[in-house]
Write a structure and sequence with these properties.
The chain is α/β, with parallel strands linked by helices and about 230 residues long. Helices cover about 35% and strands about 25% of the residues. The N and C termini lie close together (about 10 Å).
Length: about 230
């Protein structure tokens, strides 16, 4: 099976290796470029807890006075794993969804209205976690520590691969990634080939981007559940 992965290599290497070991052909076509945002390091002593909604928020974390026991709420297992690699040992994973993360924070017996929380994220977020937590009476600072740029160019090698071996399955992980992919398909006249692929979308918002553009073979997959969708 030909499988197209749209995540940056640093996020996709593990799943690509697993799919390749199962005999699948992998096309790696990243649709977003992640860049660190230049901000002053965060003083950990100013906060009681950290919130991370992506692995990129961890990778681009810059702090002073690191406290390895700092309470860290992580959206999923990969984000939690990276937090632990950063040295934090008091981490909690919400299992992969922002809504579950919100409920985890609200219901935590380690958080109250006096707690100071730092929420680390990128410049484009599609859930209003900040305001939802503030409505619950929590004090929260939203700290944007990375940015994302859309990639809308396609190198000649990938164009040849897609033309010769159209993907059977495409995995897409964000709405901006979906928008980039749709633009690439249009710019390089790949619509007849690519729209026959089954697109695995990480959320309904991602699925809606393809639906608006007329794509038909669309499914939702759970974070970390790529292997379950190819069997």
């Amino acid at each position: 099976m030909n499988i197209l992965i749209t995540r940056p290599l640093i996020d996709a290497e593990d799943i690509m290796g697993k799919l390749f070991s199962l005999g699948h052909k992998i096309i790696h076509m990243p649709t977003l470029k992640i860049l660190p945002k230049k901000i002053d390091p965060v003083n950990e002593r100013d906060y009681d807890a950290f919130v991370f909604t992506s692995s990129n928020a961890i990778r681009n974390l810059r702090v002073i006075n690191q406290d390895k026991t700092k309470l860290c709420f992580c959206v999923g297992s990969i984000t939690e794993k990276l937090a632990r690699l950063k040295g934090y040992n008091n981490t909690i994973s919400a299992g992969g969804t922002v809504n579950a993360l919100k409920n985890l924070i609200i219901n935590s017996n380690q958080i109250n209205e006096k707690s100071e929380i730092a929420y680390f994220c990128g410049d484009h977020v599609f859930s209003d976690l900040e305001n939802e937590l503030k409505k619950e009476g929590l004090k929260l600072d939203k700290i944007i520590n990375y940015t994302s740029e859309k990639i809308t160019d396609l190198n000649e090698e990938n164009k040849k691969i897609i033309t010769s071996h159209p993907p059977d399955i495409i995995f897409v992980y964000s709405t901006r990634s979906a928008q980039s992919l749709i633009t690439i398909v249009k710019n390089y006249s790949l619509h007849p080939l690519m729209t026959e692929s089954k697109v695995m979308c990480i959320s309904n918002k991602v699925l809606d981007e393809f639906k608006k553009d007329g794509w038909k073979k669309l499914e939702i997959f759970e974070p970390g559940g790529e292997l379950l969708k190819i069997n």
